[in-house]
Automatic annotation (TrEMBL):
This is U3 small nucleolar RNA-associated protein 22. Coiled coil: none annotated. Residues 1-37 have a biased composition (Basic and acidic residues). The keyword rRNA processing applies. It comes from Rhizodiscina lignyota. The keyword Nucleotide-binding does not apply. Belongs to the NRAP family. Residues 1-56 are annotated as: Disordered. Keywords: Nucleus, Ribonucleoprotein, Ribosome biogenesis, RNA-binding, rRNA processing. Residues 175-316, 321-462, 468-613, 635-826, 828-1001, 1005-1141 form the Nrap protein domain. It is found in: Nucleus, Nucleolus.
Amino acid sequence: MSAHSEAKHETSHNGADEKLSYKKGREARRSTNEEVPSRSAAKRLPSAGPVNRHRQTRDVVAYSGNLYHSNTFNIQLHGLLERARPKPTQFQDSIDTTLRTLKSIIERIPNREPLPIAEAERVLMKKNKVVVPFPSPRPSRDSNYKLQYEKPTRINAIGSYALKQTIRAKEGIIVDLAVTMPASMFQEKDFLDYRYFYRRAYYIACIAAGIKDSKEKYMLSFELLHGNYLLPVLSVAPLGDEIDSPYSSFRIQIIPTIADGVFPLERILPSKGCIRPKSASEGHEQQESTPTPFYNASLRQDSLVTSYLKLAHDAATLSESFRDACVLGRTWLRQHGFGSHIQAGGFGNFEWEAMMATLLQGGRTGSGFLSPGYSSYQLFKGMLQFIASKDLIKTPFFSETSDIALPQDNRMPFFFDASRGHNLLYKMTVWSYRLLRHEAQMATAMLADTLFDQFDAAFMTKANETMHRYDATCRLNFSNLQGLGSIGDMHASEACNKLYDMLLKGLTDRVRVINIDTPRATSWALGSSSAESDGMIVVGFIVDPAEAAREMDYGPSQENKKDAKAFRQFWGEKAELRKFSDNRIIESVRWDTANTERPIFEQIISYLLARHFGKSIGENVIFKIDPLSQKILKPSEALASKAQKFRSLLTSFSTLESNIRELEGLPLQVRHIFPADPLLRYASLDIPGISTQILTAPADVVLQFEGSGRWPDDLGAIQRTKIAFLLKLGDLLTSAYPNVIARVGLEKESQPISNLAFLDVTYTSTGFTFRIRIYNDREATLLERELKLPGISPLDKESNANALAIYKRNFLRRPAHTQALQTLCTRHPSLSPAIRLAKAWFASHMLLDDNYISHELVELLVVRTFTDPWPWGVPSSASTAFARTLHWIANWDWKTEPLIVNFSVGIESSAAVADGGISMGMKASDIVAIRTRFEAWRKIDPALNRVVLFAASSVDGEGTTWTDHARPAKVVAGRMTALARAASKLIVEKGFEIEPNLLFEPELMEFDFILRLDPKVAKKRSKRSDANGKSQFKNLEMQGFSHGELEKLGFDPVSLLLEELRDQYGELVLFFYDQAKEDVIAGLWNPSMEVRKWKIALGMSSMPPASAVNGQSEGSETVRINKKAILHDIVGRLGGDMIRKLEVNKQTI
């Protein structure tokens, strides 16, 4: 980023030997225990005096509590400042030498006598091969004024380099060199009709010619200062590679400027029109010109270099925290992709610094909006709050009392520095300003979050990546669009303004933010004309998911004829007059919901583009709407999924609940019926419905009866009593409801103190099956009592502890987790598809496994993206949520940081966030307790042999419910992180152009061996046909369900094979299974088990070592595992017909 964009400062060169210097501000910095202004001091801040000043700004930026939410945040912030404070560049000598050489060359360039425009151009081209970089429109060749060159009055290094505040960017170091053009070159009316800019362009061309013809050799090119088509500058890069460093390259930007006062301020105020109509320029000056605020501000900017130097110096003198606040602002802007370049939003380091300095003005007398006593962090937050709370398009800001008029049809934000007559925000478009406000609103709400440490989200996270920021994009050819409108005064073409207005009006509340990214102008050679901007316009949308798929758009009533006519003109043939059920008769537009290939959001944009820009543009627009969701969703569901596909199952669950409660004859009254399954919390990998998959996927349900003293005091007896209850419940259900089939099943028969039985209830009318288990709170009491018995054996203690953990997980944590997730999925429509997309990714890489990454853990990872979304708002599409989740996993240091999810956070919308609409369910004490428990686990288990990932939530403070007993192990957690980093990097590189298969295809060559499964026996989702004949159940047969299928309800042969493989060889091999495709089991040999000391009953197939292995000497005391024998046993004995093929990828046998 150009140093000119960070701050406009200058220092003079008074001779070839004079060192570049700058006047240093105060060196003193606040300590880490900075004192904050007292409340009495805050009260002494007076309200804004001028009428047109924002009276409520003082309340917005007033100090309102502790400076930092935590000591950790304080330490991190000061660490950031220490690292980010600019330091003298190690290349200063080389840069200084280049600057002195350029200064000497420019001073020796001879004057050029005044020549007509055509002649001046011809001479430069003929003698020097330099084309004058005139802005568009070019000057007329028969213009009656002449161009000339005179030696500059001053040559100064300006910007951050002169202040020794240069930052080393990836593109190298950029140093600004201001060349002040003499006032004698200009005529009184040169501010009109581009004449100043034509003279300026000729001046920089003459400098380019002089440097080009000098004995010193440089790489020269023209480029636009901050993308402003009116302000070409000369880029000078030294030739040679004498500096051996990745950041060694630097270049000098030579910027023509003028002294303040060359043109009267009152002639170039924002309301003045300096581009006269053609008739007026020919002598009819009485014709009123259209205001040209961008043109005027561009001209005014060239005269304010010294003035803004003084402003920044005064602010640094007034507030010792000013410089550090600029560092924080610079960091935040960079992370959010904002810069002084027009295509970077037009708000960069210089604008931040100048705005903050202006808001500090008058601090000593009490009239400033920011107090000079504020710390750097308070100044930073005050700036964000000012940006977030003020709409400077609707209500422009004036720094002083002023009667300056603004253009009536104003489209740009105004922060008017009245003392200098300059709008600091003149380079911002409507859309870039609204995006800046949106980001500031997010940051303000984020920094108000007292529950979690948001330092990384505020300052360390790159927030402007396309797929992290937007929910959808569309791309249009810029050259085609640009031809539809002239640039005129605006820095954005009229076509872009028209495009934005059209999209905003057409999409209404379907979108929260629309941003238009136009291609950046590139540099060009001295001997050629500036290249036309080409490439693609990318329009990014932050969508309101609750409205994006709305079928109807409503207009005015027929009585409002003016608005109704405008509505019909805008929508054309789509507009219809309709009468609704509430007797309203209004204009409306109805969209096609039956079109499964194109979501409504896409239909609207295509139609509007075709109507207002032409059919070819409407047909050739490229949409990227929730692209990754196509992995699990149809295109029509993008941006629209409200978990509708799960409603039939949930309706069936409600039927089950009412059916059970209506039963008569149960031994006890039913107290609760809890859902406890991914299918019942909108989170299953597969969508439930009447399909060939249903009978093999029962949904878990927990049934609790009213308390009774008649339950036995023996754990085994309780399990047998449960069986009796389930048998009775099944009999009652089948007797009362003909469409119900109930069957009791047994599980964990080898663990008599754990739950032994379940009841499968199948509704033949829908095909849905529910697996009911009985929850009895007395079991926990008995298990805890058993654990405290004196003299209990270690084996019994471990058995009871495992039974208690399973009990809590199945009967307490899972129902609570399910209910919390149900609530969140109904609040956030994109949460359900985002979870399913994440599970598809984990499954495709064979990590979705109760022994590795459980369903609940994946759900917690995705939920965190919605309840703690910073630095973004709540995602509105599954793809965006998935991309952010991967980004967080890729950066999660799970060794030192727990995962904490607050299910109770309610963030309704971006607007609510801006207003601080956050309701916290967890308290700070809950977070402290969870972190204390996490730290205790790390002390107990420093090697991470038992708890690798610690995942707690507002409904489960234990943190180990889903991850205890090394679920996952360290190697699996490390693989998760590595895969997430690779995927996140790919998403950043490709953005919305990413090919989904690149993310979801596993790399099987990384495994030691692959077991290819026979699809005939491996697929757990069998078809509804039975070779054995008819079903014994008539109602089952009518629905197409076979008795054979019913017998295999919940039967998963591959999972059983996997369980047996892990029981037999779990210490030797890590087995992975793709639950999505179900076609392979992959294996990794455990390297720590390669060689073992020989002993009797070793418990594995072994063989003598043929040579030294892993540094161990060959001898009779060691053996190595016999991999060939183990693989032969797996394929021949355990797998049998289920394994179609064995593939060994690595020669490790």
